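thought: fold this chain, then report.
action: predict
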Amino acid sequence: MAIVIQKSQLKKALAPSALAKAASRAAASASASASSAKLGDARFASIKIRKPPEAESPTKPEASKKFANVVIRKPQKAEPPPKPEAPKKFANVVIRKAQKGASGLEAFVPGKSFGIDDALTRYAIKAVIGEGGTGRVVLARDQMLDMDVAIKILSPRLVRDETALASLKAEVRITLGLIHKHILRVYNLERSGSNYLVVMEYLKGRSMAQLMDDIRGGMAPDFVVSAILLVADALDYAHRHNVLHLDLTPGNIFLTDDGIVKVIDFGIARIAGVASVADDFIVGTPVFMSPEQIRGDPLDATTDVYSMGVLTFQMLTGRFITSPDLPLATLAAEPHPPVEGLPEPVAAVIEKATAFSPGDRFESTGDFAAALAVAYGIDPTI
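observation:
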């Protein structure tokens, strides 16, 4: 889960004496943090993300009683075609859909606005989707356009004064310009009383975190590589527009019911090299954050490369690259333990992506994804 930490508090944690203690703790825990890898659930042994044929629209697969086959594909310019019929090699690969009534969403209670004033009648709130360090996300109905949307109600600390608000507006304008088939669309910035709301595309499907909860160990390499190639394509696009994501986690990589990979939650995205709305705060999910992001240093695309490496390691092995319980001072000052439990060429790629020094990493997420594919003997062409 993303957190928000004030920099003044972080400076105390990163004082020389604290770093020395942290380094000692890190050395003591390094050997314990590397456990044997669980290299994939047998159910994912044959899964592969692929692009559907261009010529004909595939037919909808025959539904089983409890499961639905999911094939990740690259969307076409026209409306997405129906789900393709699963080939025989996918016959035993299914992703369980959540049963009705087990969505985990907090039901809307009449009179409970979740931070949206009654005066903003355009949106009828249905449920709470999630909550983190940057705010709460609700599912709502846009009654003007008659469509479901997701609304992030931003944490007050991100709009604490006029300077922060001006930065927020600038960043939302940039994010509104990110129009990519694998990036969640942002529609608008709204104000409701003292609250600021980011209105976004609502997706039906499951996050990688939810998919990983259903298995023990890691996902099949073909599945992971195909997904990472699409995520990298989206991030390289954002980086070309000078926007960093800064919170790449399994929870922020989404697989829709139509089989499309989407990068979600650019809610703490930052314009590279420009002061952020959270300039006085450290925002993100610590175990996935680069050391320089934790320290509050200037950032570039290599910070997202680092997070991509950590994310990929977890998807492949089912394990964190380092203990999520380590203090921030340790994560900021010490490299993670050596990568183990993966084929040597793959481990080398992960090590390079998650190098402690930004200058030792791949220059782009696309370079990392392509190297990962080659290490597995997979064609990196999307």
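thought: worth noting. Residues 29-47, 50-68, 80-112, 273-280 have pLDDT under 50 and may be disordered.
final: tokens above.
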